[in-house]
Write a structure and sequence with these properties.
about 400 residues; Beta-Lactamase; Alpha-Beta Plaits; 5-stranded antiparallel beta sheet; 10 helices
Length: about 400
């Protein structure tokens, strides 16, 4: 029993006692007992009524306070639920980011990144479609659809993309509706890719912010793959001429010989040396000599077939691998290269042109050797004979003695 109720009970008893005394006095003075009883009853009823009203008002105040407290608890509960939902969503977002980063690290090509990205985003956002375009050479377009559950990737052209994907216009990426999210992937201010998701319910601002975070990770992943590809290219490319270096030559020749042994077809090796190149360096300097090497490499490359492989073997010597090329065809190719260099001087600048010739040694697998090292040695020996025979000529390796 609360203090207020104890007080109300005590007050009621006291009031009734007092009303009984008043009624008794009235009865004595008026000598009418019924009047005393009536007065006592009225006074007691008034006191009881006042006490009841006080208790009722107190109960109403407590009920109002409890309602306010209940509203506060309800709001706190709703806020807790919202915070819990936010935490769960952040947990899911973090899980997606971790999965994407793990897959990105193991990806060796940009096509893999596009495939993983679209499939993961489509499932996470419960999208109807997820599209992506990588603006490299060639352009890659990927599409994920919820019904198929897989990503299809194909190569495209710039004009085709502009016509079929107006949302991918680099001049301005716009969301056509709340149910669409278009996010560019940027690197140093340049657009590397663009992503587009479409679903039946609108994208919240939090969704779009999270897509921007993902786009930043995609930018890093694409940059990593591009950097690795650059390093791989530099590791097998001659820095001066831009063609393959000796390391790449050795690897490619071993691969071609192994393939030729398996499928039983010929492989020709041509060793090319610039005649009197030392004289160019001694007369005009090494910078002019470097320019001569660059232009000779470019002229050789433009003369070769697409299937042929050109490398700088060392110094002023170049090596050429011609798969599926028999001896007679190799001699024709070598002669064509010789004429391409000799037909006109190397134009170093407006004031200096240098006439050049080359000597070529030719050897063919399996006619002259059975492995790559012997094949190169045979072509080198033929090149040496071309030098002895006056240069500016083509010589074929001698057949091995049975």
């Amino acid at each position: 029993m609360t203090t207020l109720r104890k007080f109300a009970l005590f007050f009621s008893l006291f009031w009734l006692f007092g009303s009984a005394i008043v009624g008794w006095q009235v009865a004595l003075e008026t000598r009418q007992g019924w009047l005393g009883i009536l007065v006592a009853a009225l006074i007691g009823s008034a006191g009881l009524f006042a006490t009841t009203v006080i208790l009722l008002l107190r109960q109403m105040a407590m009920a109002a306070s409890q309602r306010e407290r209940l509203q506060e608890l309800t709001q706190e509960w709703q806020a807790t639920q919202h915070s819990l939902q936010q935490l769960l969503r952040q947990r899911d977002q973090l899980g997606l980011l971790v999965r994407l980063m793990q897959r990105f690290v193991s990806a060796a090509h940009q096509r893999e990144i596009l495939t993983v990205l679209l499939s993961e985003l489509g499932l996470f956002f419960r999208a109807e479609t997820a599209e992506g375009i990588l603006f490299n050479e060639p352009i890659l377009y990927g599409l994920w659809h919820w019904r198929e559950g897989r990503v299809s990737v194909r190569e495209g052209q710039t004009e085709e993309i502009r016509q079929n994907c107006p949302w991918a216009d680099p001049d301005g990426f716009r969301n056509a509706s709340p149910q669409e999210a278009v996010v560019p992937v940027l690197s140093d201010g340049q657009v590397m890719a663009v992503l587009r998701l479409v679903r039946s319910i609108p994208f919240e601002p939090d969704d779009r912010q999270f897509l921007e975070v993902i786009a930043a990770q995609v930018s890093l992943a694409l940059g990593r793959i591009k950097f690795i590809a650059t390093l791989q290219t530099l590791s097998v490319t001659d820095a001066l001429t831009g063609i393959a270096n000796r390391r790449h030559w050795d690897w490619r020749l071993a691969e071609e010989i192994a393939r030729a042994q398996r499928y039983r077809y010929p492989v020709a090796v041509l060793m090319v040396d610039i005649d009197h190149f030392k004289r160019v360096n001694d007369t005009h300097g090494h910078q002019v000599g470097d320019e001569v090497l660059r232009q000779v490499a470019e002229r050789l490359r433009s003369t070769l077939r697409r299937t042929d492989f050109l490398a700088r073997y060392g110094g002023e010597e170049f090596g050429i691998i011609a798969p599926q090329t028999a001896l007679e065809a190799a001699k024709v190719l070598a002669e064509r290269l010789r004429r391409a260099i000799a037909r006109e001087p190397i134009q170093v600048n407006n004031e200096l042109s240098i006439p050049l010739t080359i000597s070529v040694g030719v050897a063919v697998f399996p006619d002259h050797a059975q492995n790559e090292s012997d094949l190169v040695a045979a072509a080198d020996a033929a090149l040496y004979r071309a030098k002895q025979d006056g240069r500016n000529c083509v010589r074929v390796a001698e057949a091995p003695i049975a």
